[in-house]
Amino acid sequence: MKNRNGSAFLYVLLILMLLSSIILAFLSNTLHYIKYASNYKYKNKSYYIAKSGVELATFFISQYGANPAAYQNLLNKTAPYQNGFPILGGYIKMQIVNNDSKFNINQLIFSDNQINETEYAELQRLFYILGIPENVLENIVAFMQKNQLNYEQLELKFNTGGRGLSGSGENGGADGNSGSTFKSYFAPVSPNSNIPILNGEYKNPFLNIRDLMLVYNMRYKYYYILKHFLTCNSSGLIDINTAPYQVIESLSPMISESSAQELTNYRTLNPLTSVSALSGVPGFNSSILQSIINRIEITSDFYLIKSYGRYKSGRTRIKSLYYINGGKYKIYEFIS
Prior knowledge:
The chain is an alpha/beta fold. Helix 1 runs antiparallel to helix 2. About 15% of the residues have low confidence. The radius of gyration is 27 Å and the shape is elongated. The strands form three sheets. Strands 1-2-7-8-9 form a five-stranded antiparallel β-sheet. It has a domain of about 130 residues.
């Protein structure tokens, strides 16, 4: 009788353990789906927060495009918030980059494969200012003249080097460290026919600034610097209201570093309203103005909007190319 009671007790324990395992597995599975649903919800909310940042940035540009200091002051109001500006229960960060404050690399070579000497001289000075060897510029020229754009080669080069860029640069998402994310963000993007990237004069274009990594002996450290000063989506004119001082200095050998920095300080409080107004800036006389007048402008048609939305564990980054043409605009969106 005692042995039977002991066996029954063991059977009951085994049954209870089995039932407990089933219940725990059910609870674990349920919690997993709840967490998955929550993450999906948070991701969606972060997307709409980031999207609202893009819409707000396009409003800033449409209202204050000719005076970048005005919307920059509005963007700076988010600075006191470490995580971003609180909105819709989450946080948002925005940045507006004027693409016409950079050199258009696609204007380096003419349609007959000849070098654009003016552009080359300016880029020579820029590379010198940035501390990049001139042979890098020579390799860029040679690459463009060979007319080679091979995205499989680009993918191989990034992955072999141990660096993946989940869309850093002009037309992509955020920086990353895994080469496995390459295909999601590096598909070739054809420029819209309405954007005069080539202006009917140039060929062998870089479709994306990341294509620079295709150039022979292009090191990542050079690319990382150059992507802040070169563009593929620009009119070719330099916006002196927004261009970095290095770009301004490289426009002419007559422009010193101190004069270029003086202009960047001057325009913060006094945005230029005309190209001729540049002659009134200390360090810029009429001779300098005449030497660069065909290379500069004071308003831009191209802007890159970077918007970061965060809601709890959800994160979304959106980059959009904003193009103004006769009062109309188009947005080319990249999400990560």
